[in-house]
Amino acid sequence: MTAGPTSVPTPLHALVHGACPPPFVESLHQALSHDPAPVGADPAGRDAHLTLRLRRLSENLPSARHMLQAPEQLAALIAWTAAAEPALCMTLINHTLLGLGSMTRLAPDHAPLEKKLDQLESARAKCSYLITEIGQSNSHLATRTRAVFDPRTREFVLTTPDPEAAKFSSVAAHGVPRTGVVLARLIVEGNDCGVFPFVADLSDESGLLPGVEMTGPVELSALPLDYALVRFNGVRLPWEHWLRDDATLAPDGVFHDPLGSTDRRLQRTLCVGQGLWGTLPGAAAALARQAAVLAARYARGRRTQGRLAPGTPLLEYRSQQHAVLGAMADAFALTCAAAHALDLWTTSLSGTPEGGPTEGGDAMAFAPWTAVNRPLSAYKAHSIREADRIVTLCQRHCGFAGLLDTNRLAAYHGFLHAFDPAGGDSQLIYYDLGRALADDVSGPAPAATKPLPSPQHPQWWPDLMLRHTDRLAHRLKGRCDTLAAAGHHSQGSFAVWNPLLDEAAELGAAHAARLAADDVIRALTAVTDAGTRTALEPLAALHGVLAARRHAGSLIAAGTLAPTDLDALSEITDRLCDAVLPHLPWLEDAFAFPPDVVRAPLGAENYGEALDRTLNWKHGATS
Asked: Which of 4, 253, 309, 495 has a CA between 20 and 30 Å from the CA of residue 596?
């Protein structure tokens, strides 16, 4: 097996790791190569460990406010911490992206918050983002926590009206001051003025502050952090803790919001979600790449004693190649999609949205997410679900070793599985994407006149998905019109859409997959080195062929492919695996994070010896 072309590591590394300055990446590496997670730590010990790591990052990297304006660096930080320790990544997302991000983006004047921002940036205090309320589904659309304006003191009184409105988040209070960015409904003179973020101090070194009520830990083993339910009982917040953006409240109590509606205000309040969706695909791609590398190295070094061919490495089996090389191909596709998602968010920071509506373009229906930003929400849902599938596949093909906590795949799976509903529920995003795409349809479906390229060509899958999403959209639009004509529309939109939710989700997922397919071609086109392109093209084609085989039912049902079209894909898969296999060491080198960051025996040349070094042996007395 030979390595890839000698000229290719530089462009491939740039594609995988972005354009961060090397000194930043080196500082990030050094900061994450210390302090492995304590085994079996209690909640206080776990929180102390994460606080220590957060402080080490703050000491070695640029300030959070700098990185919030430097998307490449922030995306690298999120991706590297996800690979190193998913619980640390989730802490950073809450603390920096959502918490500090809300303060820096939505506070009209930073001066009154400067002391608090400095405290949070240095990790002398930690920040939580409190949005979800436990009592209702889709609580983001009907926030019930109230911030009532007191005109006498010009303060806000933060109140949880009943137990169902309790907030859920990671809000540990183990001797480190904790601040919350709390989404609450502003009430002025009895009028609902929309949902805004408010900065609320939850605890200090001694414990909870007056008016704050918190449960004991609510365990979530998939992503172990100190979660709890939080309620507010008349907590008074100073004026400057209202992150009012461009809304105003005059001394005489007159409220004015230039956005003009509570829905538009909610979209604006949730604008920090765009930063999450711009960087989270990079973390998902990083976990998928690292999982694929670990599985590939394990399969190459693990010998099977099956009677067909005793002593044969697992990687010689076609089924293992389909899984492991397929994971590499799918991780590469996610990496291309993550790069474009980051570009979209970077563009939105300049005030020139690209690729879809960001301010009121989509109506809110099942959730607010596509109304905040349609393409970025699609990238979030697709990247998390695809990465979760890839990690799960790698776990399965590593057997018992894939399940061991020390080999990291279980933690990666937990992070991705938890983020399917978190950060914008992926299923609700797909419902809203499908509904919006069907609404966009006008005229009959165009006939497919352009022949598709060969499945061995990277362009085959994007062209196929373009045709498929068009068919799905016209089919869904037709069924929606049929139900409306039958009188369902008179009973409201729910009566029309309720029977079509599965089809809407199918369309939404296909649309997101098509965006990612286009990004693969975009990334390949940008590669100028001929050797790199030659090595990457079969990897891109393998991604498309395996995706078509997974989604064969949908493709055949929509008439996008005929059953006979699928017959040749098995042989093509084998051919593409043969083309990818010689470049595997090169791909592993580009895809893998440093071993002192990941610390997984599964990726060692000799797995048995590496695992043994992590174990504490006990010896019985000699007889």
From this structure: 4
User: Any idea how long the chain is?
Assistant: 623
How would you classify the pairing of strands 312-313 and 303-304?
A: antiparallel
Amino acid at 207: G
pLDDT of the residue at 216: 87
Amino acid type, 599: R
**Which residues touch 118 (CB under 8 Å, ≥6 apart)?**
none
Q: Which residues of 566-593 are buried (b: 16+ CB within 10 A; e: fewer)?
A: eeebeebbeebbebbbebbbbbbebbbb
DSSP string spanning 405-464? Answer: GGGSHHHHHHHHHHHTTTTS-HHHHHHHHHHHHHHH--SPPPP--SPP--TTSTTHHHHH
The 3-state DSSP class for residue 380 equals: helix
User: Could you write out the three-class secondary structure of 252-303?
Assistant: CCCEECCCCCHHHHHHHHCCHHHHHHHHHHHHHHHHHHHHHHHHHHHHHHCE
The candidate with the shortest Cα–Cα distance to 433, out of 504, 523, 519, is 504
Average pLDDT per run of 10 along the chain, which is 623 residues long?
40 82 93 74 81 93 94 96 95 95 94 94 95 86 94 96 93 86 96 97 94 90 88 97 96 92 93 93 98 95 82 89 97 97 90 44 75 93 98 95 94 95 93 94 78 95 97 95 77 83 97 98 93 94 98 96 92 97 94 93 90 90 77
Nearest to 171 by CA among 229, 86, 232: 229
pLDDT of residue 561: 94
Three-state SS annotation for 488-548: HHHHCHHHHHHHHHHHHHHHHHHHHHHHHHHHHHHHHHHCCCHHHHHHHHHHHHHHHHHHH
Place of tokens 């001394």: 251
